[in-house]
Amino acid sequence: MKPEHSKLAVVGTGVIGAGWATHFLARGFDVTATDPAPGAEQRLRGLVDAGWPAVEALGLADGASRDRLSFTTDVAQAVRDATFIQESGPERLDVKHDLIATIESAAKADVLIASSSSGLSASEIQAGARHPERIVLGHPFNPTHLIPLVEVGGGKLTSAENVAKAIALYTSTGKKAIRIQKEVKGHIANRLQVALWQEAISLVQRGVASVEDIDTAISHGPGLRWALLGPFINLHASGGPGGITHLLQHLGASQREWARDLGKYPETDDYIQQIAQGVDAELAGRDFPGMLRQRDELLVQLIAMKAVKAQIP
Ligand SMILES: NC(=O)c1ccc[n+]([C@@H]2O[C@H](COP(=O)([O-])OP(=O)(O)OC[C@H]3O[C@@H](n4cnc5c(N)ncnc54)[C@H](O)[C@@H]3O)[C@@H](O)[C@H]2O)c1
């Protein structure tokens, strides 16, 4: 589906920008990408080629083609005719501000500018902008051309209408967009991940489990369910006929007690060596690039299978 936003600009073509370019091309859009780094165009085209078999396997939109990718090192030229702009430049506020200023010098005043930033808020990014009301956060997950989630939110000066427009645009491209209702550090999904990593590190430090056992616990345990239904619905399912209300009344007190015993994220870097050694031990004798290749192959199959199961959200 290509409603009003048909010419997309991708600003910054590193890991995330290249993923966005691949995604938007696969959905049939014209994409103009820009990045000042030497060799950026060749690198981008290589990354789009590398990702193409996966997006092809998921199903291309009518007219989707890698030939619809154009590239320029001039940001202003890239955004001049754009109907939507996805910014994925370096994660530095001064660079984002410079980029927004250049984008605004050339883009039409009502065109949405979405930033992929993982750590900066929309309020920080839009500070000083000429038209801050059209600046939103559109935070993807790597690999951006495969993982459907995008977290969308506005800053203090973003209009609610523009947040809704960004959600509609992403949704029309097949993304699963969720709205960040209030700005918080790390947005939503990364905070959930950090909560898990915090306890995983603590369990290793306390000698409760090895790094490998923690990876096994998640990837062969709750992680399998979480990829299909989220943590709350799975909890609801665990409650039997009484659902989540019964479950929390029944087990909530225990969970509260476990929660009181959880670890804190280490304040110094001392933990890194122990965790890295655990990862090395886990990967010993394994083909890590092959492992990642197979992960992505399975990911494509899983996403494709989920798409045809009507009751799976
Ligand atoms: N890597 C991740 O897992 C991840 C996930 C979600 C969001 N993000 C966010 O996406 C953004 C990009 O991250 P990344 O990991 O792709 O970084 P990256 O370093 O791979 O890419 C950044 C790109 O921006 C380019 N660049 C530098 N100056 C520029 C300019 N003036 N105009 C246009 N491009 C410019 C660089 O040449 C580089 O190619 C960041 O804001 C980051 O927080 C990253």
How is this structure best described in words?
- With 313 residues, the protein is of the alpha/beta class.
- The chain has 2 domains: 173 residues, Rossmann fold, CATH 3.40.50; 118 residues, Orthogonal Bundle (N-(1-d-carboxylethyl)-l-norvaline Dehydrogenase, domain 2).
- Helices cover 50% and strands 12% of the residues.
- The protein is built from 13 helices and 8 strands.
- It has an 8-stranded mixed beta sheet with strand order 3-2-1-4-5-6-7-8, with helices on both faces.
- Strand 2, helix 2 and strand 3 form a beta-alpha-beta unit.
- Helix 1 packs across helix 2 and helix 10 packs across helix 11.
- The longest helix has 20 residues.
- The two termini are 20 Å apart.
- The model has no long low-confidence stretch (mean pLDDT 96).
- Bound molecules: nicotinamide-adenine-dinucleotide.
- The site of nicotinamide-adenine-dinucleotide has 26 residues, from helix 1, helix 4 and strand 6.
- InterPro entries: 3-OHacyl-CoA_DH_NAD-bd (IPR006176), 3HC_DH_C (IPR006108), 6-PGluconate_DH-like_C_sf (IPR008927), 6PGD_dom2 (IPR013328), NAD(P)-bd_dom_sf (IPR036291).
CATH architecture of the largest domain: 3-Layer(aba) Sandwich
Which parts are unreliable, with pLDDT below 50 for 5 consecutive residues or more?
A: none
SSE order, one letter for each helix or strand: EHEHEHEHEHEEHEHHHHHHH
Largest sheet, in brief, is: 8 strands, mixed
Tell me the count of domains.
2
Strand order of the largest sheet: 3-2-1-4-5-6-7-8
Structural class: alpha/beta
Write down the CATH class of the largest domain: Alpha Beta
Keywords: Oxidoreductase
Domain 3-hydroxyacyl-CoA dehydrogenase NAD binding: 7-182
Protein name: 3-hydroxyacyl-CoA dehydrogenase NAD-binding domain-containing protein
Organism: Variovorax ginsengisoli
